[in-house]
Design goal:
mainly beta
Length: 139
């Protein structure tokens, strides 16, 4: 089973209500902002089957493309199929407040490299943020 801790980068689509909430705190961002960070992963239940349980901490910094430093922390508990498809859910903490993150993705392998692509949805009282992240790891 691949271990997928490593760098992540991508973009988050920020709804108007979330941008207004951030603006009330003196933070101005556009409707799309960059994300850079690191995913720490631990496989905590696997066997000879097709599925494995995983715990992932994803630490991101958003808005650097707009001169803003917006950290966020996501803890996702989920499952991964041996074919690389995964899904999970957990808490999200960010400048916009706390919410629930729902994530799904797939990892493709090429030689000794792994290339994960994940989509996450964070519904909150300030609208739903959607992020697309990718990255790489070396086996």
């Amino acid at each position: 089973m691949a271990q997928l801790s490593g760098p992540r980068f991508g973009a988050t689509f920020v709804p108007q209500r979330a941008r207004a909430e951030l603006a009330s705190k003196g933070i101005e961002v556009g409707g799309v902002m960059s994300q850079f960070g690191w995913q720490f992963e631990r496989l905590f239940l696997s066997g000879d089957g097709q599925m494995a349980a995983v715990s992932e901490f994803v630490l991101l910094v958003g808005g650097l493309d707009q001169g803003t430093f917006l950290p966020s922390l996501n803890w996702v508990i989920g499952a991964r199929h041996i074919g690389g498809v995964e899904f999970g859910v957990g808490p999200n903490l960010s400048a916009a407040g706390s919410a629930l993150v729902i994530a799904a993705g797939v990892t493709r392998r090429s030689g000794s490299m792994n290339f994960p692509v994940n989509v996450s949805v964070v519904p909150s009282k300030f609208g739903t943020r959607v992020s697309v992240l990718t990255g790489f790891t070396v086996r």
